[in-house]
Design a protein that fits this description.
heterodimer, A: OB fold (Dihydrolipoamide Acetyltransferase, E2P), Chloramphenicol Acetyltransferase, seven-stranded mixed sheet, four-stranded antiparallel sheet, elongated, B: Rossmann fold, five-stranded mixed sheet
Chain lengths: ~425, ~325
Amino acid sequence: MAKIAGLPKLSPTMEEGTLARWAKKEGDEIGIDDLVAEIETDKATMEWRSFDKTTLLKILVPEGATLKPDQPVAIFGQKGEDITALIAQAGGAAAPSASAAPSASASASASASASASASAAPSASPSPSPSATSPGRIAASPVVRKIARERSIDLGSVKGSGPHGRIIKRDVDGAPSASAPEAPQATPVAAAPRQLGVRLPSTSVKLTQMRKTIARRLTESKQNVPHFYLTIDVDAGPLVEARKLINADLEKQKEKVSVNDLLIKACAVALRRVPAVNASFTPEALVFHQVVDISVAVAVPDGLLTPVVRDADQLGVLAISKTVRDLASRAKDKKLKPEEMTGGTFSISNLGMFGIEQFAAVINPPEGAILAVGVVREEPVVKDGAVVPGQRLRMTLSCDHRVVDGAVGAEFLSVLKRLVESPVTLLV
Amino acid sequence: MRELNYRDALKEAMAEEMRRDPRVFVMGEEVGYYQGAYKVTRGLLEEFGPERVVDTPIAEAGFAGVGVGAAMTGLRPVIEFMTWNFSLVAFDQIVNNAAKMYQMSAGQYRVPIVFRGPNASARQVGAQHSHCVSPFYTNVPGLIVAYPSTPRDAKGLLKTAIRDDNPVVFLEGETLYGVKGEVPDENADETIPFGKARIAREGKHVTIVTWGRPVHTVLEVANKLAGEGIECEVIDPRTLRPLDHASIVESVKKTNRCVVVHEHWEYGGPGAEIVDRVQRDAFDYLDAPVLRATNLDVPMPYAAHLENEVIVGPARVEDAIRKVLYL
């Protein structure tokens, strides 16, 4: 008995998903736990695996289509089953957003007629395709579709210069033409040398799922969470020295730790000592966390992710270092599981590597605070009445005033300062 | 490096292998006293004598079959067809005996034989004598099909063919025998592996896959187009079975465009096989449909001006390249 399958909800916070890749094609038999498709959620690219032994009879949405959970994406059943009724049913139910990928822009009228085109997701607006031969479908070469997927280009807004208005590579990236074979490969943000006075149009890049999530969550945070900021300047000399000693010891193992790894450890210990900061606000109650799970902001090519170092207070610095490196590298490959990016109790964001002295970070709800770490500055300091070379570090704590009051935040920072300035106490 | 023509490169390959291995012998029509219809076997009879350079009657099925039997019993025959057109009367020996014996004897008999001779149009020899037989033989599992375009490849591939334990269909361009090129000397003992393409020219705008005689046509067109800033990458697979699929796909991933140029008819054959593999394995990299420039789909006319029209020439190659580049 054939049935329509909806877009699975693959992360607890998934509100829509993009069908990134079909791993099976129509007519393929599917075994239990076979990969059916890859779905880009707000967090990561997730695998959709089959729970049943079945056959993929019909793909209802093309790769690149963005849908809400449970919107029809495919029909499964037994080979040879009559699924025309189901296709019609799915055609009515499917209403993917206008941001559906280029290949998904079959026009509304096309979806009502032939069953083949009805299976393509109808777009909310009529297709702007200039194609003469196949109205309603954007004609684009395979490599253009690949580039569009990778760079999130909306092909509906691109004019094709190939036969019958086909969009070809040179239309999306200034590929070589005979007259200018050396033309640079322009990307949406590349600043190619140009003649002054020539007005160039701005380029629109379709929002990725990650960008949408960042926009939504940070807006929510800044609008709803009353932020206040506390900055403290600490002597980083002992921490830098401690790192040197640790790394000398680790050299044989070919391992090393960073200042940031030590700071994660120091924050974790400070949170144990000032548990009021390791807390979240909810409308009904303040929630104090029993575990210290530290979210670490990681920049990735098209945004940022906050993988979580679990039980950071229990881990040694080397273990923290290895965990962070593993999480960061998988974050860059979009291979983190959603549960690895949720459920932190406190965040650290470090922009010291860019030379930033201090900054104020936006709280990552429902966490109660985030620490923004700057660069270790070499500068003269006054010590025992004399000016000597020093190493200073500025850290700014953003607090949710609903749960962390000024004095509590200040106490946390003073504990953190003591730990950083005498790292040996981290051993206690 | 010294220069040698394609004909003498082939002769050297046979002579060197005959000196190296007493089991190697040459057999065919006019290979001995007449020194070869195209003089490819020139001097072999004098050096190796009539036991190893054997003139046969005009009986292709017969001497192809004798060759298969000799190979099964331990010799390494090189069977020359005066042209590959005449192999069609020996088709059964090649397809049913040489190609299948290893499998059907459950591995008891290997057939280390080389069938060689000139292939494709020789200019004004009529419809029956102008075949490119590559589509017939590349379709058969159990056969290796080589088709060198340069003297160096001709020599290196023929030496590999003679040493290989499988039956090899060795196609020589009938109009390539006089083509000169660099060939390493005898001491180099250079062999060229099967299934390894040669990049005849590097480029980044379009991949052109071609072999045999048309390699030279394509290079001529590529040189001309370079003047306009169009950089063609020319890939000569050298053996059509096995096919160096990876090199072709790799190149298409770089250029996003592909033209296949060949002198067999357009319908099917290695040309279509290559297009199929490109569409399958480089699909996401294509910016235009893969095009082909081929001989026209008719029996070869005798009249020179008509034959010129039928054989794939520079104009048709250039036209396909421009089309695939949307120019």
